[in-house]
Write a structure and sequence with these properties.
DUF4293; 157 residues; DUF4293 family protein; transmembrane helix; elongated; membrane; 4 helices; transmembrane; Butyryl-CoA Dehydrogenase, subunit A, domain 3; single chain; alpha+beta; 4-stranded antiparallel β-sheet
């Protein structure tokens, strides 16, 4: 249910991870040759001149981000079973961390594809999983707080 604060955090987490799918993660421009390379969640794009794109399954970033958004959306509707919500929150923590790791790995591959002396720039899509990690931790904290409240009420009966 969206009336609990942890549900709002989980909804924002899902939106942040879906935004990773739409926004570019990393961008590098070689000023001398005019070549550009942009990393998105599903691959490298090269507007303008063709460029040898680094090989590798970049789509893994999109898969992990989509899975994380799906787990967060499913977690919202598990409000009757807080133990399952906490388990899903732990799984989501691993998915978000893997998304960050894959993004960093493929941005390093992109760094090596163009002039190594110039640095690329991380864009908004790269930082959104960090926000999602924070939202996941806050949601898990409030889920635990609800569980403790229910257990304390059971002791009073």
């Amino acid at each position: 249910m969206i009336q609990r604060i942890q549900s709002v955090f989980l909804l924002l987490l899902a939106l942040a991870m879906l935004s990773v799918l739409a926004l570019p993660l990393w961008h590098k421009v070689d000023g001398l040759t005019g070549q550009e390379l942009t990393l998105t969640a599903f691959g490298f794009t090269t507007p303008g001149k063709p460029l040898a794109v680094p090989p590798g399954p970049v789509w893994v970033i999109g898969l992990l981000a989509g899975a994380s958004a799906a787990v967060a959306a499913f977690e919202i509707f598990q409000f009757r079973n807080r133990g399952r919500q906490l388990l899903l929150g732990s799984i989501n923590l691993l998915l978000i961390t893997a998304t960050l790791g894959a993004s960093f790995y493929f941005s390093n591959l992109g760094e090596q594809a163009l002039n190594i002396k110039l640095e690329g720039k991380f864009l908004a899509g790269f930082y959104l999983p960090t926000l999602a990690l924070l939202l996941n931790l806050l949601a898990n904290r409030f889920i635990r707080r609800d569980e403790q409240l229910v257990r304390s009420m059971d002791r009073l009966r």
